[in-house]
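Possible regression after last week's pipeline update?

I re-ran a chain I had predicted before the update to compare outputs. Posting the input and the new output here so someone can diff against the archived version. Not blocking, just want to make sure nothing changed silently.
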Amino acid sequence: MAFDEGFLDELKSRVRVAEVVGRRVKLVRKGREFMGLCPFHSEKSPSFSVNEQKGFYHCFGCGAHGDAIKFVCETEGLNFREAVERLAGEVGLALPEESPFQREREERRRTLYDVVALAQGFFRERLSGPGGAAARAYVAKRELDARTVDRFGLGLAPEGRTTLIQHLTQKGVPLAEIVEAGLAVVPEGQSEPIDFFRNRLTIPIGDSRGRIIAFGARTLLPDGKPKYINSGETPLFHKGRTLYNLDRARKPAHDAQSILVAEGYLDVIALAKAGIENAVAPLGTALTEDQIALLWRVAPEPVLCFDGDAAGQRAAYRAIDRALPLLKPGQSLRFAFLPEGLDPDDLIRRDGAAAMHAVLKAARPLIEVFWERERDQADISTPERRAALQHRIEAAADSIADATVRDHYKRELKDRLWGLFRPQRPVRPGGTGIPLRQLGAFVPPKPSLRRPQALIGRGRRGPDQPVYGQNPPSLRASAAAKGAQRQAPSRTEAEVAFLLVRYPGVALQDYEAVEEIAFAAPQLERLRREVLHFAVENPVLDESVLKDHLCAQGLAETLSALEKRDSLALDRAAAAGLSPDEVLLRWREAVASQQRIQALRPAARRARADWARDQSEGARRSLDEAEAALARSFEAASGEGDADL
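New output (post-update):
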């Protein structure tokens, strides 16, 4: 049912947004507004405001914004209609009149709710009655106490082909409605319906409001097949759009900002009995897109818990393939694997709830499990097979609809491929144990410790000397080469990046250093990653070819800025006369300077944050000391400060 704008405006005018928000956030009046800690992200100082006059909330920290309806949706996991109905009921506002068709459909659904509720009463009575001994013995074997049985409404569907049908028809329920509610079925080749559930422990399935809409059931026969069944699709129940126990788990999951997905109903019940109240389960199928969307409305990174055997691993992989295209910023999945041969109930009964908490704490991000699957199943013994693995991984990343998440996945997976594909490097005899990478350039001898004069003087290139680092045509023709450039990075970072692009074959002899450096300047950090990605696919690193690739990746402006930087002019003039060992020495000196600065930056940032927070004398002194140490490091490296911190 759609709500017209007039009704929604009337509802918003009657609802006090501060009252709705105040149920979950402690608000303090500040002038015309209320302030509190944001419920959508972690913070220590209030940045979440509520404007009663304008009828909205806004967080200046994370950008969360909306009205009372949206707040109820976001904090309680309700859909729009459910939130509107909830708020309208609270303020005594009648819902709009429905059309005749809508009234007929809702009346039909209400009738089916009544039919299912009658069936639930029947099942509950049979579990506690004379014929329920076997079912009660199974419940006792699972160590489910009377409180748990009552809370989750467990029941018994007795033997007999028409026992439930007879009970409901005696209550005046038409046979057609019994079939429509999924409680009876007409077998193939027969004309009369029979009970759908027979000789099974029944588990009622509720909708988002807790109304029973269907049943799951476990066989009580030792060799009964299938072990579990669900109601079929009905006007009330859609298996792929329902999660078992969501109505009970939603609030504790919202409070914890975490929701757990177990494999079955009894797993969920065992977890709740152990105090883990935020668990749900799909209904006999692989997790669907609709179910993933339901989970994300409750928590940003649901934890999927699987058995540690091959079947559990396959189920996890199916969930990954289903979720990848749906990923959004801040919304993903994590995976927890139980010890092989145990389900949550087994683990809790054997080792206690603490063991289950440990499994959940060790849950791993989606990208980790995806990468392990691809890596462990791949044969990378030949270039063609490595290319096939790369193609599969790139295709999976390309399936992600959100452009931002897709870009981050592609970069992360490129980095992992680089680490997987790089060959093992021999250790130089008598060396320090630093492995070398053969890149088709040269393996320099151990460099002299004396700083080469070529790096100090302004020597000129002789007629037979090569021109190191001459710009390729694509760079010389770019707009960047004609004068456009970004804000220059620090002197130390620029030197490291300059040498990395000018002498890639030499710099990547110390490939670990290239991997570990983290540039503060975003354009140089992107350039570093692209060099590593390029190295994975190109056994010979030629400067001109590398620069063409970087220009094609949109880094022409950055390259041009490095080439034009005045503080590097001395190096460019002398570059032609450098020997390999001189280049390697200069590279290692520049990297060492950058690493010293990189190690000091976190302390300086923390000191600045502390000063901004309390501005005490101690914080001021700590800030002065941290910045002085950083300044000394810059002076030792180049005699210049860093404008990009």
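Follow-up from reviewer: compared with the archived run. The radius of gyration is 33 Å. Marking as no regression found.
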